[in-house]
Structure formats: structure tokens, C-alpha cells
Amino acid sequence: MPHRAQQPPSAWRFIRRALMLRCPECGISPVFVPVKKVRSLFDWFTPLDGCPRCGYAYEREQGYFLLAIWGLNYGLVALVGVLVGLYIQHRHHPGVSSPWWLVLAPMPFASFLFARHAKSLFLAMDHYFDPHLKPADMSEGAHPLDEDEHEHPSQP
Ligand SMILES: [Zn+2]
Question: Taking the model in full, what pTM does it have?
Fold first, then answer.
């Protein structure tokens, strides 16, 4: 992967792209249907098939995002919920059970809002640790961003 050698990928670049819900490879195209165009739960939760710009496939295989949902989304939301619950208990001593209801009630909502970022972060992590590029990219050593130049060759 020659272009990797010239331009070492930084984990932060992947994380930044993931938080902006952008393609992990080119960082330009969105991973999901834009919020204004969402018409159903399917639109909200399901990533697009792939990047229209660089051709990066978002869903590599069926069930690819299961880990994103259970590991990242559920795990992080539950962790934050438990921490907030412990904090409330520690600060205000409202009794044993009442703070947990305060914390548990908004968790499904938080999980819903975080679903897209969980998938996007998972996508970026996977691409960071296990980059998969099209064979053409590897043989030419061309960066996917240079594709535009190939599409419009300059005439002599
Ligand atoms: Zn892309």
C-alpha cells in the first residue's frame, strides 16, 4: 500500500471523520442519509451501501454492524448511564432506587441518537486496523482522492 507509506494514517483522522459521519476512506461523502431526508427508522439506522466518491463499501458483510450496536452503542450508553447514576447517588443520596429510573429512562433515547455515530466509529475503527482498499488502488499506488484526475484526463 504505497500511499499509506507516504501518508501514515492517524487514528484521530479516522475518529474525526467518524464523528462527522463521513466516509472513513475519503472523509468527504456521508455514511448515512442526511438527517433532513430521513423518512423512516430504516433511513436513520441503515448506512448507505458505499461511498459514491471513492467506492468504499460501508457494510462489508451481513451482520457487520452487530458489534457496533452491541459493543459500542449499548456498551457506551450503559457505561455513561451507570456513571451518571453513581454520581447522582454520591452527590444527592436520593435513596437506592430513584436515581436509576432517572438515568434509565433517557437511555433508549440516547442509544437511538448515538446509533449512527456508533456505526460510523465502528466503520472507522475497522478501516484503521484492517484497511481494505480496491486492488486498483494498491497496484497504482494512487490515493482515492486522485480519482477525479483519472476521470477527466487532460487533452494535449
Ligand atoms: Zn469515500
Answer: 0.70
